[in-house]
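Researcher: We're teaching a course module on how sequence relates to structure. For the next exercise, students receive a sequence and then see the predicted structure as tokens, so they can try to spot secondary structure elements on their own. Here is the exercise chain.
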Amino acid sequence: MTLYFWLITAAVLIGTTAAYWWALRKRKMHLWLPAYYFTSRPAAKKLGGADPLHVFIAVCDHYEPEWGRPPRATSVARVQRWVDEYPRLFSEFRDSSGRPPQHTFFYPQDEYRPEYLDLVAELVHGGFGDVDVHLHHDGDTAETLRQKLIDFKHVLFERHGLLRRDPLTDEIVYGFIHGNWALCNSRPDRKWCGVDQELTVLQQTGCYADFTLPSAPSDTQTKIVNSIYYAQDIPGRCKSHDVGIMARVGVPSPVGHLLMIQGALVPDWRQRKYGVFPRLENSDLHCGRGPSWKRFQDWTNAGIHVHGRPDWLFVKLHTHGCKDGNIDTLLGPETQQFHHDLAHHAEQNANFQDHYVTAWEMAQLVHQAEQGIRSPKLEPQTVSLR
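Model: And here is the predicted structure for the students to work with:
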């Protein structure tokens, strides 16, 4: 081999590596891929195994009726479609606990209209889901953020009969998803938040858990992936939830920390871009990429669980349920087929138990696992058929 050959070969390898790295950085995958491949995590149980397996499924919707700023009548029609069609389409399905599919509407404080929430409350009180808090904000301080959250949770609870009081503290509590993914001021340009101490404010105002993640391909994505963990504000830092303490059986929730429940985030090598670059499986349900049995296998293979309870898997999904196109997917035959497939698998596998849960229930199941409870405590739910 000549020196010229080796120089050409080296140049090609360097160029290919540089191009690949550039492509990964463009999709912000460099933020989490090293942790995904090189962080040791306890193994979880797999689908189809001989051991009993419980899978908890929560759909956490960034529910924005005014997405795209349409006329008010269009926003009302979007919500009304959910109220009319969700019970009709999904009442027939039942999980292993006898419950229908559940949908948690994370409603944005910045889009508050009582007429929308009065409609959504019909679904909640009919037994098909729950409401929690979503927030888009920018340039806030800790105090202005605190007041927004306190005022909004009281409106939801007192005006609409939503949310709940913590059975131990009697405080009105809520789950949270941050708009624009910018939890804890995590964007590099510090836009769409402004509060480095956001985790503390959330905890002090009654937030029982955060459900923002994963945020990939956003640059707000944490290096912690596929985990249930606790994070607290680090003085002088934003994006404090980039590090945390894993939830474990027999270990109580650490004082001053906020529970973080992530959805699955894995590279999808089956659908490579240009046949080379992996696409993302980031638990996002949207038009053209709805729920499916194939995706469900990826979600469970991510192995999200409380350490020491590998037979309880947590599948936290997210969506924007009022976006045009997304509604047709979420309230359409693709989603119905997913529930059919899930029910069929449960019928054929005695060791498999599926559970439709709300965000609140998912957080309570995390705490049950931490306490060493071996059988999840979920009651069959009575629903109103429309």
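Model: If you want an answer key for the exercise: The domain at 32-370 is CATH 3.20.20.370 (TIM Barrel). Residues 381-386 have pLDDT under 50 and may be disordered.
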